[in-house]
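Course assignment 3, question 2. Fill in each field.
Student: A.L.
Task: Predict the tertiary structure for the chain below.
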Amino acid sequence: MGTRKEFTYPSSDGTHQVHAVLWLPEGEPKGVVQLVHGICEYALRYDPFARFLTDHGFAVAGNDHLGHGLTARGREEYGYFRDWWDLVHDVRALQLQVKEQFPDLPYVLLGHSMGSFVARTFLIDYPGNLTGCILSGTGQEPALTVAAGKLLTGLGDPHKVNKLFYSLSIGAYNKQFAPARTGADWICRDEKVVDAYLADPLCNFQTTAGMNHAMMTGLQYVANKKNLSKMDKTTPIYFFAGDKDPVGASGKGVEKVARWFREAGVKEVQIKLYPGGRHEMLNETNKEEVWQDTLTWLEDHLG
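Answer field:
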């Protein structure tokens, strides 16, 4: 049985204390996996998966982004941050802390959804600092769509929800699953997972215009070919997603990003799309298969 500890460290925004979690296996770990969570969730939501990894000898770390989880100082801060790079720098700060404890271990970043966009930014800004990177539930809207979203979310109060943007983005994800049982059927086929998500006060909120504007800035950055060329071409990348995930355009968006990585010269790019899977493959009805596939990739690439 491994151990779990929670701690805080200063955010790069100069104001907040970032809430973080470190899961440790029994004995010496053989590698580190740092989790980068998605929109409207938090690090401890990955506790079952993290414990699976510690049972197989990995240390696991993760933090709550600004505007999320226990990094937010109250419900009034949920769904808001002002700068995309604050998230990226907070992820880097956690990595540096964990590497102080385990300086010689192989190190993998696993980013899900919005966290995959953060991880993709990390690959550009900090090349050569990872043994590998796993991107879960990623995607990329067309450039004009992202630009329009950035323009729209730049209007009005950044601390408030832009209802039009929300209805066109997250609010539209359920359409392909009509008639939907809930407003979050798009995340997973497992009704218990969906119900727990909706009942969780750390998940049940809407994102603000300010956060969406920052994220559109990030999406423009990770789509820029000049930026993509800065990535370390020797860092292996593993994409996985459900082929019914609306964030990844039912697999097409995932394949597009994987193609960009190959065109940028990344030597090893692997992709797996799970039939019928929705957005949260780590919580899906076939999660044991997904966990095992992820573990296999880790063990193959971390020696």
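Instructor remarks: Residues 228 and 261 are 7 Å apart (CA to CA). The mean pLDDT is 97.
Grade: pending
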